[in-house]
Amino acid sequence: MAAELIESIVKILFIFGVNVGFFSPILGWVERKQSAIMQDRVGANRADVFGFRLIGLFHPIADAIKVLTKEDFVPDGADKLFHTLAPFISLTPAIITFAVIPFGGHYEIFGHSVNLVIADLDVGMLFIFAFGSLATFGAVLAGWASNNNWSFLGGLRAAAQMLSYEVAMGLTIIGVIMVFGTLKLTEIGAMQENFFRWGIFLQPIGFILFFTCAIAENKRAPFDMAEAESELIAGYFTEYSGLKFVMFWMGEFLEIVTIAGVLTTLFFGAWHLPFVTDQMLLSFFSFAGPNGSNILAMLVNVGTFYAKLIFFIWLQMTIRWTLPRFRYDQVMRLGWKMILPISLINIFITGIIVLLVK
Amino acid sequence: MADLAKDLHTEHMVMNMGPSHPVTHGTVKFMVTLDGETIVDLKTNIGYLHRGFEKMCENGTWEQVMPYTDRLNYVSPLINNVGYALAVEKLIDIDVPDRCKYIRVIASELARISDHYTNIAAGGLELGAFTAFLYFVEARELVWDLIEMLTGGRVTSNYVRIGGLKNDIPDGFKEKTQDVFRRCRELWTDIHKLLTKNRIFIDRVRGVGTMPPDEAIAYGFTGPCLRASGVLYDVRKAHPYLVYDLMDFDIPIGENGDNFDRYLVRMEEINQSMRIVEQALEKMPKGPINVDMPQYRWQAKNDVYNKIESLIFHFKTVTEGIKPPPGEIYLAVEGGNGELGFYLVSDGSGKPYKCRVRPPCFPLTAAMPRMVKGGFLADIIPTFDMINMIGGECDR
């Protein structure tokens, strides 16, 4: 019992540390640097500590200091309670969602069975959808409570867009669930041990549709209708400053990480190296004894998972800095008239194939 | 649905878009009445950049007006310089030397290129294509390097003089131009790939802000926006000035008069302007760049210090200003946005009696409500970008 408790605490601290402590500050830097490289610029490199600039890596620290010392501003006539509550509602689900994503497999270490996921829920995928939808409230409340017309329009757009894509996203993923026959993400991950059984090969259309919906759900360009800085100034968080503003920002970055995690788990073999089965990995490390081989295999698997995750983060950033923004009605048309029917057809075809194969 | 909406109590939302809003650069205010996201009404408020250009001109000598013209369309100031100088020269009846004409053509076309770069880049930026923006800003920097080499200034060049130019073309200008244009063409191709065939971009601009040719003429459209509507009117072809009649270049025209056509017309005009610059550099004759009329154009410093006549003329023109004969004149050149006209009245004194500018973007801005009404809030952005309203020119 005590061992399990310790295991859970370690896993929670690990995920929390990696996501909130590492990814969310570093992604701000990555976004600046990557956009700079894509645009022939140098990018952020001014913050220095005793003359050391370290390719701008001190910028997250400088940002944190700036944000913490800023005035926490609530506009006149705003609903103070909801104005304060909104950033929390949009940040919390973003942190929590990662709990069901497995970042490694199942290992026997010193007679104790370690399962590298915080919460191995039977309804893992539904959990992600449920908490993903909660973030909508954050955007809507922020837009509504700010007492600002631009925020209000941004909030309305966010609500319509996120709800629409929620539906489409749910349908795009059904194909994957049908193929793997489970909602449990650890099982989906384990089933992709064989390279040719990776989700991307079984559900190529599902992958593209889900990826599109996921970016739309995260409200990043080309789907940043709710923010649309040239139309709505900053959309639903126009009236936010300081730490509250950063909470929206962090929420967005954590969702990038979560999307990358979900994509890796569902479509890109989760923690598995291509062409390497768990058994092969264990026998490769057999020189280290049963415990040692398990630990080494675990490290390799976690490393693989995060390598894939970082690749998808990079991909999302590249898309964000390449494409222009849709118009609001075009986004809705894309969601309802293109992605929804295609995903329905995808479900239908997948169903037939699953029936025939069985 | 319609029945449902009838019983619902809904109100239109009135919003101030600008004057400090990310899209209303050039400082303009739109009072937008929205029904949901649909624009019911739009009122344009201009004048935030009014600096009393005309009154300032009346208080300076004819020569002193030149730096003010830099600040009209601050994206292509050289065209303003050329336009004003040509108008004054027509008033006096000066014919500048051929070399001067060629250099003025080069200067105008470089300015036009940088104007179109800025316009397309900013248009891309506001539609969310930040990368496209910076690619064209790089191209504009390179063109500005050329302009800096030629004039000594990057933005406010103050290069053209009445009856001549500030200086001749520097050594190595031709080679540098070739280098710059090579890189600019690469960047042009990149932008072409990033935007012209990009479905998202096309969806945002095609069929938006459409202006049929008859209405465009009625509103007083000129320049790329008029040509996008399919009307073949370019001052450079219709009323050739300088040596444009000796140049081989094409005028692109659009079909639908929407924002996509305006974008395409500008993209093609960049290429045509590059052609003109290259031809002008090839054909340019040797010779003086200033007219030999000391009462209008300063003599060389060597003469001023060593010859008494030159010194007297220099003293007179600097203290009292040059004195065109009494009369009035209107002369238009093809600016970055269209017909840039100068209406000048002289009473025979050293200062303009009246200096009125016909800004090409004023009629375009006036047509904003016509172009966006019934569209979406998001349609204001590409439309306003593609008419390229420049506050300095529109408000003066």
Written account of the structure:
The complex is a heterodimer of chains A (358) and B (396). Chain A has 358 residues and is an all-alpha fold. Helices cover 68% and strands 2% of the residues of chain A. Chain A has one domain (71-357). Chain A contains 13 helices and two strands; from the N terminus they run H-H-H-E-E-H-H-H-H-H-H-H-H-H-H. A two-stranded antiparallel sheet of chain A has the order 1-2. Chain A is globular and about 65 Å long. Chain A starts with a helix and ends with a helix. Chain B is mainly alpha-helical. Chain B has a domain at 53-289 and 329-363: Cytochrome-c3 Hydrogenase, chain B, CATH 1.10.645. Chain B is built from 18 helices and eight strands. In chain B, the strands form three sheets. In chain B, strands 1-2-3 form a three-stranded antiparallel sheet. In chain B, strands 6-7-8 form a three-stranded antiparallel sheet. In chain B, a hairpin with a 7-residue loop joins strand 7 and strand 8. In chain B, helix 5 packs antiparallel against helix 17 and helix 6 (130-151) packs antiparallel against helix 7. The radius of gyration of chain B is 23 Å and the shape is globular. The termini of chain B are far apart. The A-B interface holds A 35, 38-41, 149-150, 153, 221-222, 224, 228-231, 233, 321-330 and B 13, 15, 21-23, 37, 124-132, 134-135, 138, 194-195, 198, 200-201, 203-204, 376-381.
